Amino acid sequence: MDDTLKRLLDAEMKAESLVTQAIEEREELTRQALNEARLAEERLAARIPEIRSAFLDKTRQRIEQNITEMQRRFDERAQALRSMADESREDAIEAAIHIITDPDQR
User: Fold this and answer.
1) Positive or negative, the Cα torsion across 91, 96, 98, 104?
2) Cα 88 to Cα 81: distance, rounded to the nearest angstrom
3) Distance between CA 84 and CA 92 in Å, rounded?
4) Are the C-beta atoms of 73 and 66 separated by less than 8 Å?
5) Quick check: 88 and 81 in contact, CB under 8 A?
6) Long-range contacts of 56-63 (CB under 8 A, 24+ apart)
7) How far is Cα 27 from Cα 19, in angstroms, rounded to an integer?
8) How many CB atoms lie within 10 A of CB 95?
9) Residues ≥6 apart with Cβ < 8 Å to 106
10) b/e map 51-85, b = 16+ CB within 10 Å
11) What integer pLDDT is reported at residue 6 of this predicted model?
12) 105, 98 in Cβ contact below 8 A?
């Protein structure tokens, strides 16, 4: 019986040792995970200016493209209006000449 009790005590001590070791390993893994998370946060915080700059650059490019496109459309519309004005002016001049040269033919 003493031998069995001794084996049980030895087994219990080994189990306690394994539990203690497992707890220590868990705590170490937790520390490592927290450290890695902190480092990842620091890397992200360090990259924020770079990310912001890239975002602003892309936004500026899109704005410049939009301005260029709007200017192109404005120029096209202005040219169309000038053409229409020129045609109307020519029609008005012709009508005025016709009225002046032949006042009876209104």
Assistant:
1) positive
2) 10
3) 12
4) no
5) no
6) none
7) 12
8) 10
9) 99
10) eeeeeeeeeeeeeeeeeeeeeeeeeeeeeeeeeee
11) 87
12) yes
The confidence score (pLDDT) of residue 33 equals: 98
Distances (CA, A) of 35 to 29, 38, 45, 48, 59: 10, 5, 15, 20, 35
Q: Could you tell me the two tokens for 8? A: 């049980």
Maximum distance among all Cα pairs of the chain, rounded to whole angstroms:
144
Structure-block tokens of residue 48: 């924020």
Q: What is the pLDDT along the chain (106 residues), one digit of tens a residue?
A: 788 888 888 889 999 999 999 999 999 999 999 999 999 999 999 999 999 999 999 999 999 999 999 999 999 999 999 999 999 998 899 888 888 888 776 5
- Tokens 């890695």 belong to which residue? 36
Q: Which two tokens stand for residue 59?
A: 């936004």
